[in-house]
């Protein structure tokens, strides 16, 4: 008997008929002797509907008071889901009880709409499991130290599920989603993309952070930090397929690099076009300038991704970085109104028509020449590289958005990702 | 500067445009110097939508576990409303903050779907008011001593508003609704029905409990217990009408029988067809028999209204009472399966085609012959009376449902309710 956490996305919860199927699947696992905790998302479309209503009424100025109310509203989507799933499980003859984030409680900081989980008290949930109940917990949300409702931001239910699995030392956390695993890249872009049966935690972290939409990055971080075995699998298989078959399907995110792991140099190609590039021109090249620029951005709670500082000319340098497109206008305003005047920058330039394409693989650690192979493949296609960043297991380039698909296909081919790798 | 509680129904909250109008109205009151607490209902249709989803998934058997989940789901309707209204007020330039029942907290017992408020801690709300904020509180819901979400049942937002007004010793609680006050009877049935500018708390209590849908009965009980001045007024007046005019519109429910009060013998005619009649035939006429029958019904959490025990024949008697039609089948099952075998009753009969019509008035206390005037008016119309109950300020009859409108019109005419009463 193991403690298992299931997470179901909004599509799986999209109608009462689908919720009934989720209940049947969970009941199958519970009847097989497992202690079950389930974290469902809001019914698909519900969060957008709620935030759409809020947007119609919102003041122009964003304030903490406004963000607090957005969380108050958005959190209800998951609350409805957990109640409905509990009822559906009861109809299956199971004992089931639902909890909101504040009831567990899931403690978070107070960063409304993008809060971070700080701790989870599992006493209440554990008591219900011991009493033979299936426990259903709202994803995406928690409560701060002053008793305000917070949400974790889009995709936050993945993080909730992993955090619960970590707190309860679950045997495995199964993320049911509308894809059947993690692929070498997005199959909608490269038809030859191949499903990976395992991927290392570090690779998954890079894939997630680089725009592979399968898992929310913070959920992968959590899984890594607490070593929660995480499996991504399809919610579209019939609920009554053999439980052993189901338990070994999808992609397992592992922490050991054992022989069973695939030994490709590059495991996958990630990409995103959610970012925008910003360049602050002509700032004095002196100590502290990076902090002066990025400190202000960080204070405004804007996440920065790629950062590049060019070599200086005449004591002046250009400073470039990328932010999420949603934060683009806010960042530009901030730089023009506050940072440029105080730093003496000559100009602030922005470009939203960019994308980032990355190759990811643990094998890059021990193989030289991987990055240059990437640059040549792009060059062969006539694609100009605007920015480059590298880490131990990934290399990313920022290019013109219109070349994204072309670049991904070229790299997938260059690194022979359509073929099963040979053991090293 | 006074502390004022506003309560808005689902129709007033039915769209973002209407919510914006509510915000403008509340802002007008706040700008006039009042400390404002607002209790809005769920957007119209929302509670039905949510419970409809739940019903599609529900097991056949009702259990406490199921009712708990229904409350979990239904409570979200008001949570969305308070968030949206807070945002709309912020857009009006006001500082506003919303709270759910559990955040205030509003403590209730654990009777899911029909919980009762036990206490309200006003410290948090008062601190926000002192800080110049408009405070918006979810109606309809609370939290029990184990931290479970509870709801107060349909119309519970009225009760929440009055309870909050009582806890905070508000100057007045204004219930904005889709009628412009309390009428002598339903104007849809009697065109000559007249709005009362004041009504005594006791009369209002009878009107509410007898089926006048203007206010939920528990809200009137609360208002009476804590002497909260309560005003029912229209939410359809333009938000920018003169505040003095608005503050004296509608119907005020008062606690003093002063000269200003209207001196009619009968103030209004109430009616409902929500009840069903049940008769347990041939039970032994011995001490304890009423308890044996009604105790079992009360244990099943079924409210009983009119109760009549007929005179006995041969040591046997017939015992009749009415319950809400929603509880009818459950009551019949209970009586046939449990009560009849243990009491030796010969038969359990039921009739759902009944209605109750009542005349209400403080003046009945000091005027004889009011009931007989009622019976004659009904007799003149050829309407047979099935059950009669009386209290100090009301007389009710149960009649065939098909005569309801006829009876109400006849009584409205007989007691000259279409005319302003003359001072006594």
From TrEMBL, chains A, B:
<dbReference type="InterPro" id="IPR002912">
    <property type="entry name" value="ACT_dom"/>
</dbReference>
<dbReference type="InterPro" id="IPR001048">
    <property type="entry name" value="Asp/Glu/Uridylate_kinase"/>
</dbReference>
<comment type="pathway">
    <text>Amino-acid biosynthesis; L-threonine biosynthesis; L-threonine from L-aspartate: step 1/5.</text>
</comment>
<dbReference type="InterPro" id="IPR018042">
    <property type="entry name" value="Aspartate_kinase_CS"/>
</dbReference>
<feature type="domain" description="ACT">
    <location>
        <begin position="359"/>
        <end position="424"/>
    </location>
</feature>
<dbReference type="InterPro" id="IPR036393">
    <property type="entry name" value="AceGlu_kinase-like_sf"/>
</dbReference>
<keyword id="KW-0808">Transferase</keyword>
<dbReference type="Pfam" id="PF22468">
    <property type="entry name" value="ACT_9"/>
</dbReference>
<keyword id="KW-0457">Lysine biosynthesis</keyword>
<comment type="pathway">
    <text>Amino-acid biosynthesis; L-methionine biosynthesis via de novo pathway; L-homoserine from L-aspartate: step 1/3.</text>
</comment>
<keyword id="KW-0547">Nucleotide-binding</keyword>
<keyword id="KW-0028">Amino-acid biosynthesis</keyword>
<protein>
    <recommendedName>
        <fullName>Aspartokinase</fullName>
        <ecNumber>2.7.2.4</ecNumber>
    </recommendedName>
</protein>
<dbReference type="InterPro" id="IPR005260">
    <property type="entry name" value="Asp_kin_monofn"/>
</dbReference>
<dbReference type="InterPro" id="IPR054352">
    <property type="entry name" value="ACT_Aspartokinase"/>
</dbReference>
<dbReference type="InterPro" id="IPR045865">
    <property type="entry name" value="ACT-like_dom_sf"/>
</dbReference>
<comment type="similarity">
    <text>Belongs to the aspartokinase family.</text>
</comment>
<keyword id="KW-0418">Kinase</keyword>
<dbReference type="Pfam" id="PF00696">
    <property type="entry name" value="AA_kinase"/>
</dbReference>
<dbReference type="InterPro" id="IPR001341">
    <property type="entry name" value="Asp_kinase"/>
</dbReference>
<keyword id="KW-0067">ATP-binding</keyword>
<dbReference type="Pfam" id="PF01842">
    <property type="entry name" value="ACT"/>
</dbReference>
<dbReference type="InterPro" id="IPR041740">
    <property type="entry name" value="AKii-LysC-BS"/>
</dbReference>
<feature type="domain" description="ACT">
    <location>
        <begin position="278"/>
        <end position="353"/>
    </location>
</feature>
<dbReference type="GO" id="GO:0004072">
    <property type="term" value="F:aspartate kinase activity"/>
</dbReference>
């Amino acid at each position: 008997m193991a403690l298992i956490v299931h997470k179901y996305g909004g599509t799986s919860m999209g109608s009462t008929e689908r919720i009934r199927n989720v209940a049947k699947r969970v009941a199958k696992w519970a009847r097989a002797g497992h202690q079950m905790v389930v974290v469902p998302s809001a019914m698909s479309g519900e969060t957008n509907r709620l935030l759409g209503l809020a947007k119609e009424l919102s003041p122009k100025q964003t304030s903490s008071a406004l963000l607090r109310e957005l969380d108050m509203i958005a959190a209800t989507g998951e609350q409805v889901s957990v109640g409905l799933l509990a009822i559906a499980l009861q109809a299956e003859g199971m004992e089931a009880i639902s909890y909101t984030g504040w009831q567990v409680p899931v403690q978070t900081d107070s960063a409304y709409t993008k809060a971070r989980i700080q701790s989870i008290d599992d006493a209440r949930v554990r008591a219900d499991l011991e009493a033979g109940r299936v426990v259903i917990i709202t994803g995406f949300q928690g409560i701060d130290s002053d008793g305000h409702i917070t949400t974790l931001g889009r995709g936050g239910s993945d993080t909730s599920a992993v955090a619960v699995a970590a707190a309860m030392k679950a045997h495995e956390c199964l993320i049911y989603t509308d894809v059947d695993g993690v692929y070498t890249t997005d199959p909608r872009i490269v038809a030859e993309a191949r499903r990976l049966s395992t991927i290392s935690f570090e690779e998954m972290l890079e894939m997630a952070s680089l725009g592979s939409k399968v898992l929310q990055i913070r959920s992968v971080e959590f899984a890594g930090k607490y070593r929660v075995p995480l499996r991504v699998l399809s919610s579209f298989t019939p609920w009554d397929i053999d439980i052993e078959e189901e338990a070994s399907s999808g992609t397992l995110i592992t922490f050991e690099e054992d022989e069973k792991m695939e030994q490709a140099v590059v495991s996958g190609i990630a990409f995103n076009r959610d970012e925008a590039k910003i360049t602050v021109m002509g700032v004095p090249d002196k100590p502290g300038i990076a902090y002066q620029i990025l400190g202000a951005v960080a204070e405004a709670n804007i996440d920065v991704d790629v950062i590049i500082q060019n070599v200086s000319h005449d004591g002046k340098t250009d400073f470039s970085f990328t932010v999420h497109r949603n934060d683009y206008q806010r960042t530009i305003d901030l730089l023009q109104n506050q940072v440029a005047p105080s730093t003496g920058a000559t100009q602030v330039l922005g470009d939203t028509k960019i994308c980032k394409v990355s190759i990811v693989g643990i094998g890059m650690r021990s193989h030289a020449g991987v990055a240059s192979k990437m640059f040549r493949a792009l060059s062969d296609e006539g694609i100009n590289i605007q920015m480059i960043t590298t880490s131990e297991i990934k290399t990313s380039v920022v290019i013109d958005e219109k070349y994204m698909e072309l670049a991904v296909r070229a790299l997938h081919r260059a690194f022979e990702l359509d073929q099963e790798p040979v053991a090293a």
